[in-house]
Amino acid sequence: MTDGGGAEHTHGAIERALAMALAEVDPVPDAVVAAAKGAFTWRTIDAELAGLTFDSAEEGQTAGVRGGGPRSLAFEFSDVVIELEVEDTNGRRAINGQVVPPEVQSLELQQIAEPTPTAVVPDQLGRFHLDDVAAGPARLFCRFGGAARHMVLTEWVVL
Amino acid sequence: VLDEATIRRLVAGAVAGEQAAWDALVDGFGGLVWAVVRGHGLYGAEAADVSQTVWLRFVEHVGRLREPERAGAWLATTARHECLRQLRRAGRSIPVADVPEAPDLQVSDDLTKGIVADEDRAALARALEGVPARCQALLRLLVADPPLSYDDISATLDMPKGSIGPTRMRCLDRLRAVMTAGRGITSDRPGSRDTKEATP
User: What is the ipTM score, two decimals?
Assistant: First the structure.
């Protein structure tokens, strides 16, 4: 056996041991598996998906300035834009948002941590405010008025 | 481990609304998502939220996958993005640095020969916490079940494909060195089973 083959043999053995070790010591928690399976109940097939197009957290603008300034998020689908500013207030979240176009028939915040969605009432310009929102995965559900009456859901984000 | 035909069938089932198909996908790929999340140093509620968000996003995208058989790669990449977002949001550093060579590492004979006793596995898992973050992320992906291809690991970790092999070697050497150092410490404790280190 060459030295290279021996090293490969050794590394393979360590990896196999590591795989077994992690499976024993750090398995996927049951609650995480259950939550992942439960995620399927959030399946919706009749709403359009507004993709996350901007996240100040992802741009790195907030890196190193923890707690300074709200986090900005933007979601877009076609001509619909939903913008959020999320502030961290003692572990809870305060949200200032705006939906464009503002002809919103109903708007609600859906959260994994809350069994019932939170109804939101935007003003004439589509602006809205939410206080004391739980941290964790959340999305907005928008139903528009007018002839199209289409429904838009934002992608999930961890607030 | 799910083969490609099975993955395609399960994805199609999930798109059709079959909870059982979805559950099988979670059982098949839950460990892979968890490996990415843990590899980025996330624990507790943060790890649970990130994992959950990845699966919620998968619910939205499962009907739009261009290559359903590559669902694992999609999940790993999405998990990576969610981890980075979480780390940046929390103002924490992101492991991007290269792993330098460490030629002077002391490695025990047993580990050099690739012998890892059952009872040493817990120590091995602990030793993983002692290697650079970049190594933890790579090693967890390399031993994840189901395994990812080097192409997918490259995309998931933003690591050039050509450097995965050499980095893997360096990371495993570092892991062995941490194990060796750990043995030196435990051999001083009463009741240690490691007689090799204790006797000159």
Answer: 0.83
Query: Closest to A21 (Cβ–Cβ): which among B19, B114, B125?
Result: B125
B88 to chain A, any CB pair closer than 8 A? The answer is: yes
Residue A83: CB partners within 8 Å, gap ≥ 6? A72, A73, A74, A75, A97, A98, A100
Helix (H, G, I), strand (E, B) or coil at B57: helix
| Whether pLDDT at A35 is above 60 | yes
* Residue B71 predicted with pLDDT over 60: yes
> Could you please report the per-residue DSSP string of B70-124?
GHHHHHHHHHHHHHHHHHHHTT-----------TT----HHHHTT---GGGHHHH
pLDDT > 60? residue B102: no
Short-list A24, A12, A29, A6, CA closest to B124: A24
Nearest to B58 by CA among B95, B11, B106: B11
Q: How far is A87 from chain B (nearest CA, A)?
A: 11
